[in-house]
């Protein structure tokens, strides 16, 4: 039965700060638009003014409808599930079963921390719309904590989880250190170095004392945004806390806006270790966990995903590469996955064909030739001859294609894949290296396919799918012969059944 005690409504501070201000701005804009129409009714009004006027009116109506929905939206928790009710003209009632919950998260923007508000996001593998629906509204911190406590209670883990979280927060935060300063300093050095190199190149064209002074001023100006970005990244990375709890993995991220996330261990579908070029220089890596949900974090009351600048907060960044592998091994132990990897490895038993780099390169060659013809064609038809700059452009394309061929061979050389009795591992990448580990128990689909170029070179690609988006992008072995592809597929299918 639903009870009044287990019914929650959004905080009035949430809609007052989030939507009322927008409504007032839209109302002022609509008023000014009306005034312009009245004053200049006898003259022609600029279409741009009319456009912005109608835009303000539309925004105003939207914000008014959202504010009105605040008064009817409510969350109710019962033994049957979590219910949300909303809508004025179009009523809607949604229900989420406790047994299907994947992740439970909260978030706070900078202003919401001051106003003591929180967003709650509870999601399953297939409830993206439900999660977004709930997370649009800000609750008081007390109500948000009660919602999460009641959800955990229905999941039969509330009191136990609270005790473990409190102990972990005091003793076990960040078992492997996050090197925030090293990442920030590397970014700062690369940014300033590139800016300095550009300034020196420009000064070398017309050297003089004045130009040298200009170069120094340019470098000094570059230090300001670089310093701001360095400080921001340092604060954000230094604010990350992660804990190994008894039944799930808990993370807290964000300095200005706070995000929390709890992911049960059994929901982990794959583990990715990645290294972009500039953090590889200082021997760092990033570990990401995938559980199969689409939107990992909610950053504000409009349920927008976090911007690219906060991408690192979706994982455990800035670990030393050895610590990243040790952290992955800890997850393997928790999940009771064996790491008795095959020797010789799968890449030695079923190697990629050596024509794979050529196949990848041919597409770039075709693209380069088409681009050259498109750029040069107009001048050729006008002058019936290839202009001198067309020759230079062709040389540039040839140099780039040669560099791409070298890159493809290097990519082919570092491609690695192997398996234990429980895990499949695939590593690839020259500049941006990625290594994904997928438990066989989480693989839902294996298939072979060919594109047009694969058929021309006799290549096959073997794909492995879990419910995560990451597996569809990273978990595939490209460039096998037909015989090796089918043999490897059947071998891994047998391993999955076991």
Strand order of the largest sheet: 7-6-5-10-9-8
Helix/strand class: alpha+beta
From the spread of the alpha carbons, the general shape counts as globular
The fraction of residues assigned to DSSP E strands is: 15-25%
Number of helices: 16
Helix content: 40-55%
Largest sheet: 6 strands, antiparallel
Pick out the low-confidence regions.
Answer: 157-171, 294-313
End-to-end distance:
44 Å
What's the overall average pLDDT, rounded?
78
For the secondary structure, the number of strands is 19
If you compute it from the alpha carbons, what radius of gyration comes out, rounded to the nearest whole angstrom? 28 Å
The total number of structural domains is 4
InterPro entries: YdbS-like_PH (IPR005182)
Domain YdbS-like PH: 73-147, 241-314, 412-490
Protein name: YdbS-like PH domain-containing protein
Transmembrane segments: 20-42, 48-73, 185-206, 212-235, 361-380, 386-406
